């Protein structure tokens, strides 16, 4: 068993991030640097939103939840990846693999729902603004956020417990840098075609349908914006919505490719590159996309800097 004498027969072996890459130490340091930026950027965005009463609106509450998801998602993956690389211990226990898979799926599914809810929030704000306070009430927003987390947790529990009990007859080597369902399924010596179909159906429900609803929402938004008389209002709506649409594209694009076509002949390098982009690079970009394109967030940041300067 590779990975040390203390390894259990139930342990998995994570080959790590692009193991054949010659400059792997540089790559891992870059990933750690991106993780630190993502962690601090999302943490700062959460502090700004919850520390400024003017940002206590549904849009920013949802944005703070997105930042919380991204912060936790990167923390689920990168520390273990870095620890394995620098210690040389590439193993992960069966429980550790299941735990990592559960949190990864829970956060990913919750993010699908949060992004859909954010698109709906912008649709109501732009297309039917007079009804916005009634529809997007604090109570409704709180219930929807709770529903996103609960729905993500239930879906993740099902898709973690079931594949973790597939028998593995051969190598327990995972050609990835963390435990992910499509990669785990490939290790099983049992016929998993039925479960693969379940994964595809789940992907349609949690990836394709939300993405379609988001695109439909923004199509209606753009049509409404084009009819606006106010140039200032038009620019503000376009700036906000283009930020959301950028985040949506960066998140849904790679994940739809991974989960809708995981039964095809993906190379491990393709899976790793897409996961690296979607789950590590995108969480770093999200705070930059929202803060640089949003005057309210920039104003809250300036106030925080001002308070720190005075103190």
UniProtKB/TrEMBL annotation:
Domain G-protein coupled receptors family 1 profile: 41-290
Annotated Gene Ontology cellular component terms: plasma membrane
Pfam families: 7tm_4
Domain of life assignment: Eukaryota
Function: Putative odorant or sperm cell receptor.
Protein name in UniProt: Olfactory receptor
Record key words, sorted: Cell membrane, G-protein coupled receptor, Membrane, Olfaction, Receptor, Sensory transduction, Transducer, Transmembrane, Transmembrane helix
Main location: membrane
Gene Ontology MF terms: G protein-coupled receptor activity; olfactory receptor activity
Species name: Bos indicus
Membrane topology: Multi-pass membrane protein
Family: Belongs to the G-protein coupled receptor 1 family.
Ranges annotated as spanning the membrane: 25-48, 60-82, 102-120, 140-162, 194-225, 237-262, 274-292
UniProt keyword Phosphoprotein present: no
Subcellular location field: Cell membrane
Matching InterPro entries: GPCR_Rhodpsn, GPCR_Rhodpsn_7TM, Olfact_rcpt
């Amino acid at each position: 068993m590779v990975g040390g004498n203390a390894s259990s027969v139930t342990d998995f072996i994570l080959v790590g991030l692009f193991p054949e890459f010659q400059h792997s130490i540089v790559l891992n340091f870059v990933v750690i640097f991106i993780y630190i930026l993502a962690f601090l950027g999302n943490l700062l965005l959460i502090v700004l939103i919850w520390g400024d009463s003017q940002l206590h609106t549904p849009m920013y509450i949802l944005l703070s939840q997105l930042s919380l998801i991204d912060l936790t998602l990167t923390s689920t993956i990168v520390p273990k990846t870095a620890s394995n690389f620098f210690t040389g211990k590439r193993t992960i226990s069966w429980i550790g693999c299941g735990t990592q898979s559960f949190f990864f799926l829970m956060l990913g599914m919750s993010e699908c729902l949060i992004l859909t809810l954010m698109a709906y929030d912008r649709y109501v704000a732009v297309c039917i603004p007079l009804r916005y306070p009634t529809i997007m009430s604090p109570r409704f927003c709180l219930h929807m956020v709770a529903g996103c987390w609960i729905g993500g947790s239930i879906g993740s529990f099902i898709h973690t417990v079931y594949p973790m009990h597939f028998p593995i007859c051969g190598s327990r080597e995972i050609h990835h840098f963390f435990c992910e369902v499509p990669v785990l399924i490939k290790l099983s010596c049992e016929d998993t075609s039925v479960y693969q179909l379940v994964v595809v159906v789940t992907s349609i429900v949690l990836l394709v349908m939300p993405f379609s609803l988001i695109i439909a929402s923004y199509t209606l938004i753009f049509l409404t914006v084009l009819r606006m008389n106010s140039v200032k209002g038009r620019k503000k709506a376009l700036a906000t919505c283009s930020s959301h649409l950028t985040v949506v594209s960066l998140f849904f694009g790679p994940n739809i490719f991974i989960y809708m076509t995981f039964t095809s002949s993906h190379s491990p390098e393709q899976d790793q590159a897409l996961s690296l982009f979607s789950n590590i690079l995108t969480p770093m970009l999200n705070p930059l996309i929202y803060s640089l394109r949003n005057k309210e967030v920039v104003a809250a940041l300036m106030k925080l800097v001002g308070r720190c300067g005075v103190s």
